[in-house]
Amino acid sequence: MEFWGLFITALMPVLKVLIITALGTLLALNRFDILNKDARMHLNNMVYYVFGPAINVSILAEAITFKSLVMLWFMPINILLTFIIGSVLGWLLIKITRAPPHLHGLVLGCCAAGNLGNMPLIILPAVCKQRSRLFGDEDVCNRNGLAYSSVSMAIGSIYMWTYLYNLIRVSSCKNSKTNEVDDSLMNPESLLMTSPENTSTCSAGTLVSAENISQTKDSANDLDVETARTEGVAKVTAQEKVMKQLKKLEKKINLKTLLAPSTIGSIIGLMIGVIPPFKKGLVGEKAPLHVIEDSISMLGNATIPAMTLLVGANLASGLKASSIRFSVIIGIIIVRYIALPAFGVGILKGAIHIGLIPNDPLYRFLLLLQYAVPPAVTISTITQLFGAGVLECSVVMLATYTCASASLTLWSTFFIWLVL
């Protein structure tokens, strides 16, 4: 197909995203005040707890089988490579631009974590609906594209809430400790006002109260006393060492953030799709419990428009001025829209040459797309959680998503030409 034909095919999905995103930004402005802060919070909760898990369950239950799940084994590796390469490039960007310490986590996160769920969920079905039918039958393409995107969202969510969450947490805690030291030099009494909750947040990575900490210490002391009584010796056994390490790991990892609702929905959808009795009972018009799957599918249909409106509404905050350097924003744009996609093309060509990826053009297109998407919207949520670079994050998101309209179109055109 000619270049302009591929360009138009790639442009249409991006334009749809851009139009709905612009509508979300418009609704968030003070003049209309429809998607204000409270409205965004409630809509975000609906997407996070209801719509997102629903679309993952419905799509994966219908489209995924054990055979197709085995075929997708390379996707977790591909996403991991996007995080590793993005982190290395982000670290180089920090060194070159000399970004302030409290923005290190934000810069690394924006370079490493892409929008692996929302954008593929919007772009792939839109590409399948084009008249050119580049990826075959529309229904089959749409079903497979949504399934691939849901798996991408689930895997990306796990990486983000393990790596990215702790990355920004450590960066914010370092900055808070530096500010506390500076304040104590000016006012020694400020050391007495440091709350144990803040200290525990930096050390453990989870928001716990002083009461919970004391209860944990008491239970640990009781366990030590009981162990000493039963064993009668001070020597620590191998089993006790393992238990001690597991307890430390449990404190460091926040399982509630790791097992996000969308991840749980993906696990349930995979179980239904892979286990034949579950699939026969829930999926299909002849299934006795198909009304349950139909209801979940109806909820999932609201995910994509709600997500896109939220992206636009959150970008409205980026219209405000911030202290972030222009060189940092330009660096993030270069990393995300030039360097990472170039690495992705090289990695995919190498994997195809070795024979690691099956001959599925739509699957290969998604693997390439994972290197070219803008930064993950989850970064905004995490920065708000720790109060580190919230306004700067909004400015970066506004700049990167504005540039994404042109970048995604050009890279998608090239990717479609490459995989067909």
UniProtKB/TrEMBL annotation:
This protein's UniProt keywords: Auxin signaling pathway, Endoplasmic reticulum, Membrane, Transmembrane, Transmembrane helix, Transport
The family database entries (Pfam families) matched by this protein are listed as: Mem_trans
Naming one, the record's GO cellular component terms include: endoplasmic reticulum membrane
Record membrane topology:
Multi-pass membrane protein
Q: Which stretches are transmembrane?
A: 6-27, 47-66, 72-94, 106-127, 147-168, 253-275, 295-316, 328-348, 368-391, 398-419
Give the GO terms filed under biological process for this record. Answer: auxin-activated signaling pathway; endoplasmic reticulum to cytosol auxin transport
Is Transmembrane one of the keywords? yes
As for subcellular location, the record says: Endoplasmic reticulum membrane
Function of the protein: Involved in cellular auxin homeostasis by regulating auxin metabolism. Regulates intracellular auxin accumulation at the endoplasmic reticulum and thus auxin availability for nuclear auxin signaling.
**UniProt-recorded name of the protein:** Protein PIN-LIKES 3
